[in-house]
Design a protein that fits this description.
globular; about 45% helix; binds phosphoenolpyruvate; alpha/beta; about 15% strand
Length: about 250
């Protein structure tokens, strides 16, 4: 059984005070959510304050990025995995399409970040997904397969048990245009099949694959009914505690 994960990516939003009040409002609203793992990903500056308020709760904290280095060193502006753990994070989003598109993260860099995260015992939430142009050209599976091959290069099946994947079609992120449950399911099944072929069947069966792209309280339940959708990575709708709590407490 794969325990679902509902994770909120706050992106570059929220000062510390707002981040803290959001989680204080969220805590009681999701206190009974034992059916899934609840995760929030504040910006770096708010991780410590948020993690302190969430100690002892059922909400886990994720960072949104990590340095590709396996140890501290002279890398001005970067944040190492042990710094994230020190601040209270246990997970980290890696390879988000905004980082790939706006900050030129290649599959090779994403791979180094995944490995760096694992070396510090942080769970990477490894993002993949095609652009609209790629989908319109019928290349979505090729693109996602290349991202999987590049991002997971050199990892073992055991490493895969410590990773969460997130399929986020770029055309559905922040656009209000969600993939249909069938479109998402088709790609999730493809990802699982790819993992089965390149690792093994039980690794593939154990991998949690989240869907991301305009997930809202109104569409989460239909998405979660699909066999290979194991949760959601939520952007915009995670910024408000009530809306995120409705997503966490989806109809089951
Ligand atoms: C995201 O940024 O990971 C995301 C899915 O954003 P949104 O839910 O706003 O589309």
């Amino acid at each position: 059984m794969r325990k679902p994960v509902i994770a909120g990516n706050w992106k570059m939003y929220k000062l510390i005070g707002d981040a803290v009040s959001t989680v204080m409002a969220l805590k009681p609203l999701v206190a009974n959510a034992n059916h899934c793992e609840v995760v929030v990903a504040p910006p770096f500056t708010a991780i410590k304050a948020v993690a302190d308020r969430l100690e002892g709760s059922n909400i886990k904290v994720s960072a949104q990025d990590v340095a590709p280095e396996p140890k501290q060193g002279p890398h001005t502006g970067e944040i190492s995995g042990d710094m994230l753990i020190d601040a209270g994070a246990t997970r980290v989003i890696v390879g988000h399409s905004e980082r790939r598109a706006m900050y030129f993260e290649t599959d090779e860099v994403v791979n180094r970040k995944v490995r760096a995260a694992l070396s510090f015992n942080l769970t990477p939430i490894f993002c993949i997904g095609e652009t609209l142009e790629e989908r319109d050209a019928g290349r979505e599976e090729k693109v996602v397969a290349a991202q999987l091959a590049g991002g997971l290069a050199g990892l073992t099946a055991n490493d895969l048990t410590r990773i969460i994947a997130a399929y986020e079609p770029v055309w559905a992120i922040g656009t209000g245009r969600t993939a249909t449950p069938e479109q998402a399911q088709r790609m999730h099944a493809f990802v699982r099949q790819w993992i089965s072929q390149h690792f093994d069947r039980s690794t593939a069966e154990g991998l949690r694959i989240l869907y991301g792209g305009s997930v809202k309280p109104e569409n989460i339940s239909d998405l979660m009914r699909e066999a290979d959708i194991d949760g959601a990575l939520v952007g915009g709708a995670s910024l408000d505690a009530e809306s995120f709590a409705k997503i966490v407490n989806y109809d089951r």
